[in-house]
Amino acid sequence: MNNDYFVSQLTTEEMMLVNSEVEKRQKSPAVAYLLALFAGFVGGHRYYMGKTGSAVAMTLITVLTLGLGIGITGIWALVDLFLINGWLQEDLKTIESEAAQTIFGRRKLKESAPEQVGDDQNGHDQIIEDVVNEDQKD
User: Any one cellular component term from GO for this entry (predicted)?
Assistant: First the structure.
């Protein structure tokens, strides 16, 4: 389903949990750009952004050509400088979607078994408590 649907169905407290999860798990733009500038020729920024396949390709091009491939991977890294912002936005949307779906799914599960939850605002308080406890374990 659409991310906007899940987000629109969340209460204020649940949205605060989603925002907290996004803040905790988001990638740093400064780190991504610094890696691209200083380790871009071996794909350091791509490893950081989770694009492991192309990062390995950049590393192999540089290593297997005994450094002669730096020209190719350097241009590749230069192009990536313009793509990093989009990757960061995509990462934020993914984290937000996962967190919203998790909270929404737990709420639906709790609502389907109300006798286990009690009368605490349809289980919302218990869901928030469960998510906070789970976050503290990490």
Answer: membrane
